[in-house]
Amino acid sequence: MLERSPLTPKSHYVISAGANFTGLSQPTFVPYYQPLLGSAALGVLLALATELHPQPLLTAPARINQLLVQLNTGIRELTTALDRLEALRLVKTFEQASELGVVFVFELQPPLRPGELLADDLLSVLLLQQVGAARFDQLARQAQQFSLDTSSLKQVTKSFFAVFKPDETTKAQDDRALQKARQGLVQAAAPAQVAAPDFDFGFFLQQATSLGVPQAALQAAQNLILAEHRLYAMDEFQLANLAARATDMATNQFNELSFKRQVQAANQPPADPPSSTPGTDDMTGLSAAMRQLVNLANQVPPVEFLRQLKEQKGGFVTPAEQRTLTELAQNSRLSNGALNVLTWYLLVDQEMPNLVANLANSIASTWQSLGVASAADALRQAQRHQQQKQARLAQRNQPKGKYTKRPRIKEQLPDWAKQAKPAASSAAVSSASVQKIEDLLADLKSDSPDKKQ
């Protein structure tokens, strides 16, 4: 997939809409999409929909600066909002070079109806994470408020050909007219396929079916199961057990909504399904402390890694932080190790109290565009970013022509991840830190069953 060119205030844009877009029905759209989008991205979408006009032309684009003024926002916030809209399949972005520079086309896409959104494996999981089980149940009931159970009734609906009789004499003319009309129509995008190369779905099926879960229902819910694994790093055994809990053994029915709740309630990620195997990263040029950080990042799932950092800082994981990790895990191609390095960089190296969504999304998007594939790659990018930032700051503070030595990133590990040091004065602290991380890894490994014998 090609990366979008950077947005600047001098860039130009045109707003168009897919053939199926009929507008945004706010009574049904806002309750389901606002928790997923956030206020900033929702504001951008509503602004784009307001500016949609018939017959859009590439030759008459508007400047991005006008949109920034209208929204009273900055270019970074607009970029992050567009990333969310694209990830939620509400906007498709195209670009073209012209005499004015890069011209972007923001094509609005029809939102899913409430029932479709709740049935979508990715969006429903994210919505449940955002609003919690109680509100999710309320939205599910709201989506069915005008429905009536007709399973015990007899359907007597007439078919198309029982009512209409096509005129065969005009078939040739009709075919030409249909082909012409369909040329401008675009097929609806298929749901995003979740990538989880470290999850053996066949082995999961074997375990789940042995517990009485119907195989056909699991195959239909494959995307949902892979999404839950990707987010929580749960292995085949754990998800098979939760699938069994979500199955009504009396009717042999697998309940996807119950499965989502079971996974959210468990929320106990194991230690052994990292997306990049420890020891395979190229650690050339990294110090001993940074190598230890890379190994640790590759061993601990993102939610658990964040929890340990927050506890060490005397805090706790907030719902907003968990939502941020959820979105990064689903929308980015960064490995778990790279996500953990991003968390370490913001909370430890930058000494931020919390994981801020806008900044985390911006850095993750940049790293992905630079081809970051592992925890070691992510750490090098963090070092470069910090070096460049401090060099620019030092240059502004020094007279012109004066040489300033390029600063280096602080090679600082959280206390719970530090190795013991030989200095006698810090022996007690170092021993405690070593013991804490060893206990953590031992606990995590003990929680993971010995699978695939």
Report on the structure:
The chain has 453 residues and is of the alpha+beta class. Among the domains are: 100 residues, Arc Repressor Mutant, subunit A, CATH 1.10.10; 66 residues, no CATH class; 128 residues, no CATH class. The strands form 2 sheets. A 4-stranded mixed sheet has the order 2-1-4-3. A two-stranded antiparallel ribbon has the order 5-6. Strand 5 and strand 6 form a beta hairpin. Helix 1 packs across helix 5. The chain is globular, with a radius of gyration of 26 Å. The C terminus is likely disordered. This is Replication initiation and membrane attachment protein DnaB. Belongs to the DnaB/DnaD family. InterPro entries: DnaB/C_C (IPR006343), WHD_DnaB (IPR058660).
Features:
453 residues; two-stranded antiparallel ribbon; alpha+beta; single chain; 4-stranded mixed beta sheet; 6% strand; 6 strands; Arc Repressor Mutant, subunit A
Question: Strand-residue fraction?
Answer: 5-15%
Please tally the β strands and state the result: 6
Widest beta sheet: strand line-up = 2-1-4-3
H/I helix tally? 19
Q: Please bin the fraction of helical residues.
A: 40-55%
Structural class call reads alpha+beta
CA(first)-CA(last) distance: 38 Å
What Rg is obtained from the alpha carbons, in whole angstroms?
26 Å
Name the shape in a single word: globular
Unreliable runs: 186-190, 268-279, 420-430, 444-453
Report the sheet with the most strands, covering strand number, pairing sense and barrel closure. 4 strands, mixed
Strand/helix succession = EHEHHEEHHHHHHHHEEHHHHHHHH
Please state the average pLDDT score: 78
